[in-house]
From TrEMBL:
One of its GO terms (molecular function) is ATP binding. PROSITE patterns: ABC_TRANSPORTER_1, ABC_TRANSPORTER_2. PANTHER family: ABC TRANSPORTER G FAMILY MEMBER 20 ISOFORM X1 (PTHR43038:SF3), ATP-BINDING CASSETTE, SUB-FAMILY H, MEMBER 1 (PTHR43038). It comes from Litchfieldella rifensis. This is ABC transporter ATP-binding protein. Keywords: ATP-binding, Nucleotide-binding.
Length: 318
C-alpha cells in the first residue's frame, strides 16, 4: 500500500539537533511513504536514535521542520501519540508485571475500549507466540520473547506508523528473522515502519535505506539502487597470504577499504585507471603472487564508501 508522493507519512526538512556545542543531527531532509519499511543504517553516534526521538516528538529539534502523519512537531506531538508506535533499544516494559498485565496496562494507557481490549491482547499474544507466557513475569523472559512482547506493546493500539530503534541488537539470528517477518506482515497491512539497525542483512531487507554518518544523511535509496550506483568497485585479491597482502595495500592511493573474508581479501577500490596493475605490482614487490578479480557489490561496500571520510571525536556546531 503506497501513498501519493505528494503526501509522505514523514517529512523533515533541514532537521537538526544540537546538545550544547555538539551537533548530533545536521540539515537532515527525509521523506518516508506509507507502507514502506524504511531503514536507518549508520555507525554508533551517527544520529539515528536522536532522529527517531525527534520524529516521535520526544526531542525538540534545534533546527528545521518536521511533519509526521500530518502533525507538525513538536507543536502537535500529543495528537501524534495515538497514531504512533515506538520501540526503544532497551526493554522498557515492567519486569515485575506479567506479559498479560503489561499489555492490559498499556491498553488502559491508550484508552482502548474495555470490551475489545482483551480480544486485541489475545490476538497479539497468539500472533507473537506469547500465549503460553501470558502469566509469566516479563523480567524472566528470554531476549527473543522480550522483543516480541515489546513489539506487541508497540502495535497494541494499531498505530499507522511504527518507529523501531535497533530492536534486534540483543537477540539471536532466528529471533531476528522471525521479528522481520512480523515487520513485513505489518507493512503489508499498511503500517509504515522506520527502523534503525547496524546489521547489513537487516538493512538489505528494507524497501528503502538511509545511511547516516556524523549526523548527516549521506545516502538514501533502495538497497538495490545503492549497490548499483556504488562509487568505486569491489575487487577480490586471490592470495595465500591475505594478511600480508592487506598490510601491503592498506595505504595505497585508490584503496578505499580492505577486509579479509575467509582466505580472500576484499578490496573496495576507486575507478582510477590502471589501479589493478599498480596494486598487483605492489604485491609482487612485497613477495606475493596474487590475482585481482572483480567482485560483486554488497551493502557493506556502499556503507564503507558513504562513510569513508575520517570521523571526528566531536562535532562542534557552527
Amino acid at each position: 500500500m503506497t501513498a501519493s508522493p505528494d503526501h509522505p507519512v514523514i517529512r523533515a526538512r533541514g532537521l537538526g539537533k544540537r546538545f550544547g556545542k555538539l551537533a548530533a543531527v545536521e540539515a537532515l531532509d527525509l521523506s518516508v511513504y506509507r507502507g514502506e519499511v524504511y531503514g536507518f543504517l549508520g555507525p554508533n553516534g551517527s544520529g539515528k536514535s536522536t532522529t527517531l526521538r525527534m520524529l516521535c516528538g520526544l526531542l525538540r529539534p534545534s533546527d528545521g521542520e518536521v511533519e509526521v502523519l500530518g502533525h507538525r512537531l513538536p507543536r502537535e506531538a500529543e495528537r501524534l501519540k495515538r497514531q504512533l508506535g515506538y520501540m526503544t533499544q532497551s526493554f522498557s516494559l515492567y519486569e515485575d508485571l506479567t506479559v498479560g498485565e503489561n499489555l492490559a496496562f498499556l491498553a488502559a494507557v491508550h484508552e482502548l475500549p474495555r470490551e475489545p481490549a482483551p480480544r486485541r491482547i489475545g490476538e497479539l499474544l497468539d500472533r507473537y507466540w506469547l500465549a503460553d507466557r501470558r502469566h509469566q513475569l516479563a523480567g524472566t523472559l528470554s531476549g527473543g520473547q522480550r522483543q516480541r512482547l515489546a513489539l506487541a506493546a508497540a502495535v497494541l493500539h494499531a498505530p499507522d506508523l511504527l518507529l523501531l530503534d535497533e530492536p534486534t541488537s540483543a537477540v539471536d539470528p532466528q529471533s531476528r528473522r522471525e521479528f522481520w517477518e512480523s515487520l513485513f506482515e505489518l507493512a503489508d497491512g499498511g503500517t509504515t515502519i522506520l527502523v534503525s539497525t547496524h546489521y547489513m542483512d537487516e538493512a538489505e531487507r528494507c524497501t528503502r535505506l538511509a545511511i547516516l554518518d556524523e549526523g548527516r544523511l549521506v545516502a538514501d535509496d533502495s538497497p538495490r539502487e545503492l549497490m548499483a550506483s556504488l562509487p568505486g568497485r569491489p575487487l577480490l585479491v586471490e592470495s595465500d597470504r591475505p594478511r600480508l597482502a592487506q598490510r601491503l595495500l592498506e595505504d595505497q592511493p585508490g584503496v578505499i577499504a580492505l577486509a579479509q573474508i575467509g582466505a580472500s581479501l576484499r578490496l573496495l577500490a576507486s575507478d582510477e585507471a590502471g589501479l589493478e596493475q599498480r596494486l598487483t605490482e605492489r604485491l609482487r614487490q612485497g613477495g606475493i603472487d596474487a590475482r585481482l578479480v572483480p567482485g560483486t557489490a554488497n551493502l557493506e561496500d556502499v556503507f564503507v564508501a558513504a562513510t569513508r571520510q575520517p570521523r571526528q571525536a566531536t562535532r562542534e556546531a557552527p
